Amino acid sequence: MILNLIAFTSVLHDSSMVRDSHEALISELEKHFDKVNILSADEARELPDGDFRALFIATGGVECQVKDAFNSLPDPALLVADGTHNSLAASLEIASFLRQHGLASEVVHGTVSQIAERLVQLSRLHDVRSKLAGRRIGVIGTPSDWLISSGLDPEAAKERWGIELVHLPLERVYEYYDQITDAEVADACETLKARAKSRVEPTDEDITKAMRLAVAIKRLVAEEGLAAITLACFRLLERTATTGCLALSILNDEGIMAGCEGDLQTLFTMMLVQAATGKASFMANPSKIDTYSNEVVMAHCTIGINQTQGFILRNHFESLSGVAIQGALPQGKVTVIKVGGTDLDRYFVTSAYLQENLNHHNMCRTQVRLHFNQPASYFLRNSIGNHHVILIGDHAEVLNDLLNAAGCTRVK
Q1: What is the pTM of this model?
Q2: What is the mean pLDDT of residues 273-293?
Q3: End position of a domain, from candidates 77, 104, 132
């Protein structure tokens, strides 16, 4: 991570003395960032747009300098002040001015370690927002009727995270599905069958149909430049006689976050996880909750194959058709997270331990029993919707810091 500090000093101070006057702070920052650049406002204008930067209010008496540079300031404007040379007083005045003129701002102040910690959090948030900015989410079909609390405010989602929703009719998928022949997907079907440990319900014909649908959706993703999709799977089933489970698994393996039932909040959570950790994740339903032991069974039919240690080809649990993945996940630490609310401003996150994979006949195909490190009563008292996201490894602290830095409210 590189930190660019745009230094402002009063005419009474020699700008070359900035480092000497703030040695403790800059030395601390250099422990946390790969490089710390101290730049003038003119030099900062040459930085690429995506570079992380903050205003280093090194002294008092710089209010008018910042005001004059208003049109070139980053948004949000982060004002770093260690309190020496009246820097904090000046920062408070500047921050108030910036807010009055529509520019979000925060004064980063405290001990040198607190300032460094906060700037690390904000730089990670900047990095994630940069990765998400302009990414297009394809909403293929309309959300399932039963997801009555999982929608988004498109404008709020774009303002907070930079994402864009693109509504696409299922007819586009049907058109491509009908064009794709069995011969075109024959090799992919054979590869899938060879990778599977076994298969239970799906016939060769079922696998061919599911693969044709996967190719059709991938074609739509490529043509529309989508970074993620959510699919109205049950309506799709009525027309194609197959489900989207396998297609979503394949897309997740290829880095296109894909969720079912039109659940936009959970899909966004998967995108955030990928941007923050580089990891794919698994959308799942809580199926059994034991508040005494803090154990939760979670299950779904769309896990990416590459997240598993091995898999069986099954049919979709609820419709008993199509092709779904019953994957075995590694025992060990995982993270459970959900970002929700129509403005994507609330979240739940906890570390957990994956104790075992299950094989109940009355649940979705991939099933895991987790021991939560926070009270599982959250689901019964304050849950953010139904679906939550599981990713392998303990990333709870990093994700909590990120969402806290974004001003989101943690739900427990």
Answers
A1: 0.90
A2: 96
A3: 132
